[in-house]
Amino acid sequence: MKIKCKNEDFIVNEILDINNIEKIKFIINDNKVYINNNNKTDYNNYFFIIIKNKKSYIEHFELINEISELFKIKEHQIYFCGIKDKYSNSTQIFSIKTNLEELNKNNYLVDFIKKREIVLPKLKLSFLCLSKENIGNENLIKNNFSIVVRDIIENQKECIQKNIEEIILYGLPNYFDEQRFGSFKKINGIPGKYFFQRNYEKFLVTFLEPYENEKKELKEIKHFILNNWREWNQILNKLEIFLEQIKKEYYKNKRNKNILKKILDEAKFLYRIISYIKSFNSSPSFFKCTKFISKNLIILLLNSYQSILFNSLLNNFLYFLNINYDLTIQKYEKLNKLTSLNFLTNLNANFFYFYKFKNNNYSYEFFNILKNLKLPLIGYDVNEKLKTHKIELEKLIDNYSFTDDNKYFLVDFISKSFNFIENNVNQLLKKEKLELSKMKVKSKLNMDIATKMRNIIVFPENLTYKFENDEIYKNKLKLILNFNLPKGSYATILIKRIF
Description:
Blueprint: E1 2-3, E2 10-16, E3 26-29, E4 32-35, E5 47-56, H1 60-71, E6 78-80, E7 89-98, H2 100-105, H3 107-115, E8 117-119, E9 123-131, E10 140-152, H4 157-170, E11 172-173, H5 191-196, H6 200-208, H7 216-227, H8 232-252, H9 257-278, H10 286-289, H11 295-325, E12 327-332, H12 342-346, E13 352-357, H13 364-372, E14 374-377, H14 382-398, H15 404-431, H16 442-445, E15 452-455, E16 457-458, E17 461-469, E18 477-486, H17 491-498
Parallel strand pairs: 2-7
Antiparallel strand pairs: 1-10, 2-10, 3-4, 5-7, 5-9, 6-7, 8-9, 10-18, 11-16, 12-13, 14-15, 17-18
Helix pairs in contact: 8-9, 11-15, 14-15
């Protein structure tokens, strides 16, 4: 089984509700934007340029960087509803925050609005409108997927069909998949964890550790920094030599200038951080050093850590259902990025459980409770969110009419489930040395990372499939899937469940 063999094999389209946002009427004259201001609104206040983007083979933060450089704007002015897989052909909506004065000083943006479209090798940008309101995750309703799975042998067909029909009937676990965890490191752990612990030095150390696919030069310089941590003069000397070397290559045009510019920018970023740390002499404030890292990236790192804790909770809860409620589970361990990480093994989160129902004797009411049951992405207010959700499920029971025995069973199920979940949350917090009071990070980021509740089961909408002969792998089949998923759910989890 193979996916993403061709660019058009993995297509994602965001489905958003932007019809109700308040649009701004405008004209362009002499390369200036003039707003039809019947309401006497002060457009020196901020508004938003809403843009549709079709992208392929570009990572999210590389995309933000490219948009920033294209329009000569700051990265923090750019807002996306959701993050899309690098190896997909995706359509998504984003916005740029500006005001009339700033906009009319920016010829690149005005020219784009005038032309309404820009086509680049990895993306195509189309202007939609100016809006008084920003778009956000609340505008994203769901994602539509069109996926081709290749290299399937004939005798797999019956099993695949059976698995798809089970997904249509019973859904699948709502895990976060591996692409969510690009922030994980192989040596020092998870950056987001240390930010929540307020261990900012460890946060920086894990953040600076090189990624697997980084350029060789950056890997080497980052390893040097980590191996000589706290030897600030030695590190700065090494960085100065490295910067001069890259600058010479850049101006002599020996290699691709775009690649060299990215290496140069990253090296300058490293130099700024280490110089700032050194300026504190003997007692550096590592928290203050985090100001060099974008707030959006820090939030992504924190959310990434919350996601792996959620996966751990979901694994443990499915095992609880297996032991106590006759739910069959099967372990899926083919996780390229996660299986080799020891700290994930300790969290019981380096695999997935996929469930199957042993029989059809579950009542509609019991199955509906499961469909509505949620687990937390743990934040400072997790206890309050769990209490509220338990009350929501208990109210759901009150809407059913059934025998006293059935009602007792469901009330007992909710009670035992939440006892298990609350104990599991407390065990995780203890194991990870997390304190809920320290997870309140508003004073650090000017916003809080609150608990969000996420369904344990997700149902693909309008799932259709068909088999055809595979034109790439001869004498094999390909499976063509079309379906919708709620925002935040992963199509690759569905693929893993099918196969």
